[in-house]
# Entry
Amino acid sequence: MKAYPHFPKRKIVDLNTLWDFKFIEADLKDIKLSEICYEDRIPVPSAFDALPAYAGKRGLGIYRYQTEVSSGKKSVLKIGGAGMICDVYVDGKHLAHHIGTYTPFEIIIPKSKKSAREIVIVTDNRYNFEKCPLQENFFDFYNYGGIIRQVWLEELPESPITQAYVLIDDYEAGEIRIRVKSDCDLDTLSYSIDGDEFLPAEFNEDGDIVATVPDPTLWSHEAPNLHILTLDSGSDAIEVRFGLRKVATENGQIQLNDEPVKLLGYCRHEVHPSYGPALPDMQLVYDLQLLKEMGCNFVRGSHYQQDPRFLDLCDEQGFLVFSESMGWGQQERHFTDENFIQAQLTQTEAMIRSDFNHPSIIMWGFLNEGDTTGEFARDCYTRLAEMIRFLDPSRPVTYASNKHADDLMLELCDIISFNIYPGWYSGDRESENVIGEVLPSIEKHLADMKKRGLSDKPFIISEIGAGAIYGWHDPLNGVWTEEYQSELLQLVCRKVVSDDRIAGVALWQFCDGRTYQGAGALARPRAFNNKGTLDEYRRPKAAFKEVKKIFNDYKESK
# Structure
């Protein structure tokens, strides 16, 4: 499944196949790539450290592939995600250095008289804050390495079209603006919408093409109608898909197309024991069908940019998405480090530019559970929020906070998003009725926001849940049993659907996922975060049918 945008006039070389592979526990500076003896072949995409032969190993995962392209033609190599650190070589020449596993990137490959080209991609899955400040080993999810998302080559014309962004001016009338990133002569551009006849591009004073969708149909979670824009310069063309819809916040509510919408769903890691984060199409569809069965309309992409194939499916099926860039629990030492801040700005900008056209994305977020209790965080949070609003003023900005009333940065948000765990990370370790904390805790957070003057902003519970070991039952129905988790999630879901002050919930989490492998796993049985409503193989726990009933009953009542 090839994600949008599409380039119908270009010769595409699909590189998603078996590559030569070598794992080495060495530093890149200490090896000669020309002398590597490749002893294995593994698929691309793949998290090499999810494979049995390399499970849990940290070092260099070196991929090699030899392909054919047209001689004398410039190409672009597109990599959907690779890391944690990645270096790209073509015909022995170093062309790119990239950090961050989940951020897509592109490399221009210069012309050559040769048609045979050798591509070597060196990934490094070792933690190194100086080299890659985006991922660290204290994160409560396992950091895999390798080429985890799709890779392909496109032969380029002399003046390529790079990207097209669709800005919605009037979603009901279908009035749009098209912002083009291109090296071609803009006077050569024409456009077509939904296969209609091509029209010459007419530009406004800002340099945007002004257009009207000929037969506008709205996009919503209930009716996810999509439109396709084609831009053509003669020598190149691009197809992007978009939806006519409007997202807004008003009077404590999230609005879609000027109607309030209640967000009901889950936080979801892109992970599976057999694939790591390199999920096949089948698994993406499987996950969304399970979410649909449970009556969900909302997915929080935890805690990194999501696979564009998954976002395409969300567009098609009407899921609403909280999209966030990589972050987890950063502290003062991070927010006073300019290298870290620049890495955050770079990856967040890349996320917005690559995923802008997805109508399913209704909010942008960053820096999950950062320490926002001190002024040391203000510069970083302010710069991120301001950059997002500059790049995309059409969507609300938020971040998931676990500092709650002590959070000094909440005024930067359009939506207040709280991660809370009453009844699990209990303040009263002696009580046998910690589940009794759940409803009073939610009420307290709502009251705190009102007291602070923030009740006009929508409030969502961006994480809440309890752990359960699949198949574990006990007469006392205590913690770690399926019954305890089910009871807690029932309390939460009933509260959310019945309280207009709560704009939505992303239950933690969709499925169990691998996490700490060291001493941190003492609080994570099996070295998994076990708060999934399904286990890591998507087997439903007892809470599945209860959440399903509450969410679907709510949908039917509306």
